[in-house]
Design goal:
By secondary structure, this protein is mainly α. A hairpin with a 3-residue loop joins strand 6 and strand 7. It has 22 helices and twelve strands. It binds glutamic acid (GLU). Glutamic acid binds next to loops.
């Protein structure tokens, strides 16, 4: 049997990280088993659905790399089939026409609560009314155009299924209302449309959020009534913020698109989302998507809610920058650098090899694309912009010593072999001779060479920049002391 799963977002907003996680679990499950991932847009809520949202969702899925094998199907295009399924339910006696108006129902509920307090009293009211009708009456009233809904008759007994996450689930049918499957305006309801579409698209496994648990017995009963095979269900736990509350904007961005705009790498977000509510069973956290596909199983989806821990995303994002080839980062960075006015595309193209080496140097410290842009600045300009707090902290607290050290380093840098190892050895040895920690030498040097408090490893930076530029920068830094900048 080929496994067939689906992701059916409603295009009533952007793609939420919770939805993206559901999509990802389905996609991983499909890819792990060589199955089919179906995309269905559930656009039956005409007022709230719109094509821009659909486009944004498709874009977000593509950005994450969650490619679909079939679809997108649009639920609204299946309305005739949904209605035919409702008719089949009516024909087989699994559904009935309900002429009770909403007001009547509300009034009956009020009365029952006031008197007996038996909350079940009104539960089957529409059914009792339907059954009280003389044979043929309902059809006659319907034929006369009288507004009515169609309700699914919930059978007696209980509904049980073996959930992929929660194991055995049991619902007493007596607790379930006869649900409306077709509204009085002729529109099918969610449960009917979903069961009809899942059957039509031959879905074998329905993997979705815990918030749909109470819909599942209704859908299972509909499959039985429509004589269609019942898929296997797996309900994935909700995502909570770090404070244990339901995930909301308070906890950070909830739209996938925001992470794209922030300059997170999609692989990092995929890896991060996979680890919310799922674990490979060991401590491994950095798992590129191929590893996720290999290791993902539904057995390892956890029952308890997953925590949305942005610190982990940050860490993972850094790991992904570090692991990415410069060629992959190049187009993303180029676009931003050119937009920032720092360089032109032609300039970068003319020294592409140098540029790729620069990316390799910078990517070790980046967690977002904007970090790369920022880190790149000191390498793309001759006019260093000095960070004042960094100067205060590493230069001007002890200007005499710092000036002495920078001057001494400058002279040693003139004839040290220009390579990573000799540079590092020389600088550490100098610190030792001076009986100070290496940081006392490295931090002021970093400020002199990059203008910043933070940069990639200083030895790598020196090696990359080359002797001429390094000496030039040291001269400029030393001149700042001579100018009396430190006094
Ligand atoms: N359109 C529904 C939602 O977005 C789909 C639920 C389901 O997976 O059945 O919640």
């Amino acid at each position: 049997m080929t496994i067939r799963v689906r992701f059916p977002p409603s295009p009533t907003g952007y793609l939420h990280v919770g939805g993206a996680r559901t999509a990802l679990f389905n996609w991983l499950f499909a890819r792990h088993h060589g199955g089919v991932f179906v995309l269905r847009i559930e656009d039956t809520d005409r007022d709230r659905s719109n094509p821009e949202h659909t486009e944004a969702i498709l874009h977000a899925l593509r950005w994450l790399g969650l490619d679909w094998d079939e679809g997108p199907f649009f639920q609204s295009q299946g309305v005739e089939r949904h209605r035919a399924d409702v008719q089949a339910l009516l024909d087989s006696g699994h559904a009935y026409r309900d002429f009770t108006s909403a007001e009547e129902l509300a009034r009956a509920r009020e009365v029952s609560q006031l008197s007996a307090g038996d909350e079940d009293d009104t539960r089957r009211l529409p059914r009792r009314r339907a059954e009280a009708m003389a044979s043929g009456e309902a059809e006659e009233r319907a034929a006369n155009g009288e507004a009515h809904a169609v309700r699914f008759r919930i059978p007696e007994g209980e509904t049980v299924w073996e959930d992929l996450v929660h194991q055995e689930m049991r619902f007493q049918n007596a607790e379930i209302d006869d649900l409306v499957v077709l509204r009085s305006d002729g529109s099918p309801t969610y449960n009917l449309a979903v069961a009809s579409d899942d059957a039509e698209q031959r879905i074998t496994h329905v993997i979705r959020g815990d918030d749909h648990l109470s819909n599942t017995p209704k859908q299972i009963l509909l499959y039985h009534a429509l004589d269609r095979p019942v898929p296997t269900f797996g309900h994935v736990p909700m995502i909570l913020g770090a404070d244990g509350k339901r995930l909301s904007k308070r906890h950070g961005a909830t739209a996938v698109g925001e992470y794209e705009s922030e300059g997170i790498l999609p692989g990092a977000l995929v890896n991060f989302l996979a680890l919310i509510g799922w674990s490979p069973g060991d401590d491994q956290e950095f798992m590129p998507v191929e590893d996720l596909v290999t290791r993902f199983t539904m057995e390892r989806v956890l029952k308890k809610s997953g925590i949305f821990n942005l610190k982990k995303l940050d860490w993972l994002s850094g790991q992904y920058f570090n692991a990415s080839d410069a060629e992959v980062l190049e187009p993303l960075l180029t676009e931003e650098l050119v937009a920032s006015g720092l360089v032109t595309r032609e300039d970068l193209e003319s020294r592409r090899e140098w540029y790729l080496r620069l990316i390799d140097l910078l990517k070790t410290r980046a967690r977002r694309i904007p970090d790369l842009v920022d880190l790149a600045r000191p390498f793309l300009t001759e006019e260093l912009v000095f960070d004042v707090p960094a100067m205060e902290k590493h230069w001007f607290k002890a200007p005499v010593e710092v000036l002495e050290r920078l001057t001494a380093l400058r002279s040693r840098l003139e004839d040290v072999p220009w390579d990573l190892e000799p540079l590092e050895t020389m600088i550490r040895k100098y610190a030792e001779e001076q009986s100070v920690g290496a940081g006392k030498v490295i931090h002021p040097l970093r400020v002199a060479i990059t203008g910043r408090e933070a940069s990639p490893g200083i030895f790598e930076v020196l090696a990359f920049l080359g002797r001429r530029r390094v000496l030039q920068r040291l001269d400029d830094a030393i001149a700042r002391f001579d100018d009396g900048a430190g006094s």
